[in-house]
Amino acid sequence: MSQAPGKAYRKGLNIFEVNQMFANEDNARKWIEKIVWQGDKPVCPKCRETNTYAVKPNPALPPYRCKTCKSYFSVRNGTILEDSPLPFSKWAMAIYLFTTSLKGVSSMKLHRDIGVTQKTAWFMLQRLRTAFQQSPSMFEGVVEVDEMYVGGKDRNKHERDIDDGRGTKGKKPVVGAKNRETKKVRAKVVENTKGATLRGFVEDNVNVGDKTRVFTDSTFGYRKLPNQEAVKHSAKEYVRGMVHTNGIESFWAMFKRSHKGTYHKISPKHLQKYVDEFVWRQNNRPLDMLDIMSELVRGLVGKRLTYSNLTTEGLYNAGRFGF
What we know:
3-stranded antiparallel beta sheet; 8 strands; alpha/beta; 3 domains; Nucleotidyltransferase, domain 5
């Protein structure tokens, strides 16, 4: 197994190795089954029993049946793959491409790489993003906090939507924190950057107090936080000893490069999903590639996403922001 880029101690997975892993449908299905069921025994998604058996092959029935509750099931049941007609081999390859692309993978690229329509590829990627839930654990130590704005370019907006001030009208703010010791990141799409909103995010994700130093820019909303220190970017002060926000700003830079170079447009409705994706990528960087792929599959258990739920809500806002 090859080394993964950027981390010399990580084990990677090249395209030849992954083709051997998922050479046929059975291999791909067994790989997903072992992760979802946490072993080789099928687990009933309804009653969680392992007292199951394989039924005689029948295209009208799932391949397993539970002796306890008598229900038929497959590894798709109770996961984001439920009701998907796509073979496991395409899902496994999509998971590989998704996790190995540092700046994300577009639906156009996925549709070309695995031979599905662009619409199907987009839905697959949105399903995979449901796996990304940010950890509830609180940050301590040195924590950098900053915000960014995501939205369309002014030249693509109506004149009435262009802000004469900071240029943030029509854009969505995202606030984030990075633990300097662990390199872990937390980020959230917020409605505004008022003091109460910014402090609320910090208090929800950081153990503010004697054990923590919070480094920010000079945005007024952070000033009431305990042990908060700021650099004044407006005065061209970016580093003062230990005090800087370079770590969280580098995370924003990666997200922005992905937004412009890979995804191009992100609607406000789906923005948090993309933010969660890049938080997940950052927080799982030290893992070997197979472990990252397995972590993604585990995150798909207990989730359900329909195409109608994904597309019928928030369309007005998506057009309004012009992402």
